[in-house]
Every structure is written in C-alpha cells, then in structure tokens.
Design goal:
Rossmann fold; two-stranded parallel sheet; two-stranded antiparallel sheet; 16 helices; globular
C-alpha cells in the first residue's frame, strides 16, 4: 500500500503530477510486490477521478467497497468528528445533514459507479460489500486476491484489523496544531522526525490523552432520520441492484428494523 492512506491524488491533488504520486509507493516492499495500491474513498464520487485514473493507467484495477448508504452517511459524520472537522455547536447527525449535503450525495452509489463503468470495463472493477467483509472476511479476501492476481495463500498484515477507531479528538485546537506541525515536517522532507516521534511512544501518549469516546461525543441517529434516509435512498439502491446484479434487500429493510 501507499505510505499514507487516502492520497486523494485523482480527486484533490491531481496538480501534484504523476511523479509525486508514484513516489508514494517507493519502498523495498513495493518493489517486490505483485500489486500495490492505495485507499481513497473520494475517488468513487469525484466526477474527474475515473478519467484521470484512466489517463494514468488504463489497465488499473479498481476495488470499490459499499455499505448501507444510511450507515455510510452516519459513519461519515462520526469520521468528521473523530478527525476534528466538526468540533463545536450542535454535533447531532440531524444538524449535520442540514449543513453538509455530501453526507447524502456520497451514498448515491448507482450514479457514482456508472461514471466508473463509462471509463473502465466491468472486469477491471471489483465491488465488495461491507456486510460481506464483516460476515465472511476470508471469502472477501480470497476474491480480492484473485482479482489482483495475488497468491491465494497470502495473508495481509492488515487482515482482521479495525481501521476506524471509536474515539474523537478531545482538544481540537491542540490536534490542529499537531497536524500542522506534522505537515510542515513532512513537507520539509524530514519524515524521520515523525518516525522518531512514533518510535518513542509519544504519538501513542498524545492520542491517549487527547481523545474521548465518540459515542459520548454525539447522540445516536434518530429513528425518524433513519426512516427518512432509507426512503430517500430506495430508488438508488434499486438502481445499484440492477447495475451490480446483487440483491440488496437488507439495505432496504434496514430502515424498518431499527
């Protein structure tokens, strides 16, 4: 994988050029790997990303992970709080829906996928589902390995790890200062300083002292909000079913079961 998660090159940082992008994968492990990649959720819904990826490499293999769009929207809100993008005032999901329409827009999968299918053949795009990852991780991993041409016996070091922690930033001002410092250090080419910071356990100590349980930071989604979003997404879920040939009845029923 790339040295940093969510490079967002094909969506937000296209102007940095191919040389910058390729440098994100330069390592001894990458040089020996059968396949290398990165994770940037923004590519799915960015209108320019498909053509930019094709311009970079028309043989690129694309993996898309989808989850119930209602749960995705709520998870997006928790992510923004966890990262300190939302830190004051009304932290409820309902309030955020009023001010951030992308929470809903990013879950309109059929429209987003169609843009990718217009740029790449279907055999170069693998769609996996969050529910399958939770319920049958080994099976999903095997599907991904075969799609990428990786040995079936390979076991990723990331297998079974949770990537999203259930904590939020406690002191946002401090977090922003630390983040600016990190970016300045990396921008100056002194990544070894940040590596030393981690090796001494200072990063762990900072995170331990400057986080709070995210479930205590925000109220849960209201039942009426869930029902509203579920009805809002019904048509797109049906379109996604037809596009992928996958029964998504559980997504449609989820709004009725809470």
């Amino acid at each position: 994988m790339s040295k940093n998660k969510e490079l967002d090159f094909f969506s937000n940082y296209w102007d940095r050029g191919f040389e910058w992008y390729q440098a994100q994968f330069e390592s001894d492990l990458a040089a020996q790997a059968v396949a290398v990649g990165e994770v940037s959720p923004s590519y799915l819904y960015d209108m320019d990303a498909p053509l930019r990826v094709r311009q970079y490499d028309r043989d690129m293999k694309i993996i898309v992970t989808l989850r119930n769009p209602v749960e995705r929207a709520y998870s997006n809100h928790k992510h923004n709080i966890r990262q300190g993008f939302v830190f004051s005032g009304d932290l409820t999901f309902e309030s955020a829906l009023q001010t951030n329409p992308t929470y809903i827009e990013h879950g309109l999968y059929a429209a987003h996928l169609q843009h990718w299918y217009e740029s790449f053949p279907k055999d170069q795009i693998l769609v996996v589902f969050f529910d399958d990852i939770v319920n049958a991780p080994s099976s999903v991993a095997l599907t991904v390995y075969r799609f990428l041409g990786i040995d079936d016996g390979y076991v990723s070091s990331a297998f079974g790890k949770k990537s999203n922690e259930s904590v939020a930033v406690a002191n946002v001002s401090l977090a922003l200062r630390i983040d600016r410092l990190r970016k300045s250090i990396n921008g100056a080419g002194m990544t070894w300083v940040w590596a030393l910071f981690r090796s001494l356990g200072l990063r762990w100590l900072y995170r331990r002292l400057n986080t709070r349980d995210i479930e205590q930071a925000i109220p849960g989604m209201r039942p009426e909000t869930r029902a509203y979003l579920n009805s809002l997404y019904l048509d797109d879920i049906s379109n996604t079913e037809r596009l992928l040939g996958r029964d998504l009845a559980t997504w449609k029923q989820a709004g009725l079961s809470h």
